[in-house]
Amino acid sequence: MRRRNESTKHIFITGGVVSSLGKGLTAASLALLLKRRGYRVKIQKLDPYLNVDPGTMSPYQHGEVYVTDDGAETDLDLGHYERFADVTCSRESNYTTGRIYSTVIARERHGEYLGKTVQVIPHITDEIKAAIQVLDGPDVDIAITEIGGTAGDIESLPFLEAIRQYRHEIGRGMGLFIHLTLVPYIRAAGELKTKPSQQSVGILRAIGIIPDILICRCERSLSEDHFEKLALFCNIEREFVFEEKDVAHSIYEVPLDLAKQDVDKYILEQLELHVRDIDLADWHDLIRRLREPTLQPVEIAVVGKYISLKDAYKSIYEALQHGAIANDVNLNIRQVEAEDVQAKGAEAVLSGVRGILVPGGFGDRGVEGKILAAQFAREKRIPYLGICLGMQCAVIEFARHVCGLSDANSTEFNPSTSAPVIDLMATQRAVTDKGATMRLGAYPCQLKKGTQSAAAYGKLRIDERHRHRYELNNTYRDALGQKGMVIAGASPDDRLVEVVELPDHPWFVACQFHPEFKSRPLAAHPLFRDFIKAAAKDGGKGAAGA
Ligand code: GLN
Questions:
Q1: Helix (H) or strand (E) holding 57
Q2: Which of 22, 66, 435, 507 could form a disulfide with 79 if both were Cys (CB 3.0 to 4.6 A apart)?
Q3: Which of 67, 315, 388 has most ligand 1 atoms within 8 Å of its beta carbon, as the pocket-test mutant?
Q4: Taking a C-beta distance cutoff of 8 angstroms, is the pair 17, 150 a contact?
Q5: What is the pLDDT of residues 78-98, one digit of tens each?
Q6: One of 89, 216, 388, 403 is an active-site residue; which one?
Q7: Taking Cα atoms as reference points, which of 97, 100, 174 lies closest to residue 143?
């Protein structure tokens, strides 16, 4: 292990009682607050499951796969980190048990353990500590590590042991344990219950971790009695017990709720860091805009395959919200199951919307519905934003119905199509492994002057994140171009089409990359901002024909 930087302080965030408490949101909110206090913050998540990364997992299992600039396929909590704290995450921001074990096992095969028996303790825990230590550095004041899962899970144990050791080694004042629990409200009894939190802290105590700070998720406010009780039975000073109540409007309220209780101030004091002033005026303004949009509601359809699962398109929904904030409109998302468009017809499920977004996806289920959605947007002149598969569907649709290539398709869905307008990238042909083998991460793109995209970005050279194996088949560029589809962006060597547009349409932009990953609440992504702007035109009444 390399020598640790003596000045980086560490915060470890664990979760208790149940999953889905919003540990990632809490971690992201604290990162924002500490950054606003003038500290340089890095943040990561350690996930106890065995997949090396979530890239091969179904959205039903895992929700969205978030992609970093450096091409890591990661947990969606990294999206919260980037959006809230405006930090840039990397592959060092997400480690899983699978990744930790792979490293240890590869090292064992190289003979690096010199004949020793390789064990969970110390070899796996050392590797976890090395993953935490990656955040250390002269440019980092505070490193936040979120531990996935719930205290009491079998697979979390090596991670909890590793953070116990880490804090022991760095000492008090250098490291801090924050435990996020649930204080449920039992309707029948009309009471909030602290027992599950006490038990969860008990589980941590049994393995040697005594939380310094307890944050309680709750549906209703805790009374002073609850705070006292939690403090006494969890062995935590009263002033270090906080509540995190369900937010009324938006997840972006969480940092303000925590700031109101001075959680960040108590953290800094415990870490023996100077409590600098904090300015959250812009964040307050953001919440104000979210609560009181001055214009009409604007309804946008998101046509996807995992629509019933709200986490599957997390960054898409967030980026749409950012676009709405930037335009001061009230966003209303119509979640449309792509198969429904196929079964019931576009008119039946899409009429009335002011914008249509078709997000990324894999596999052929629902693809024909997405193609119909792109056709509906084009023909009815409804603003369209196509992302990755959403771009590929727009190209297939245009090829079929405008260029007359009725058999047009992607070879992902029909390998023997006579018009493969979307085809496997040459670099993908020899690939057989599924994990981390797509075209991943940030690549440059050159935009064409005079296009909607160039207008949105306000510049011609951009960098966006990718996650795909297929691309627009260059053989068809001319055919598409002749009928009016413009190649608005391509890789700098012009070999890979990145953006297509229809200039003869109020706003129709489709990109091979994923702009949603780079959108921020205070800085909406240009494409999302302009998409919502086009949709909100004429006070949300939408484009002609809608
Ligand atoms: N399945 C398509 C491809 O691999 C689209 C991928 C995506 O939408 N992320 O190219």
A1: none
A2: 66
A3: 388
A4: yes
A5: 999 999 999 999 999 999 999
A6: 388
A7: 174
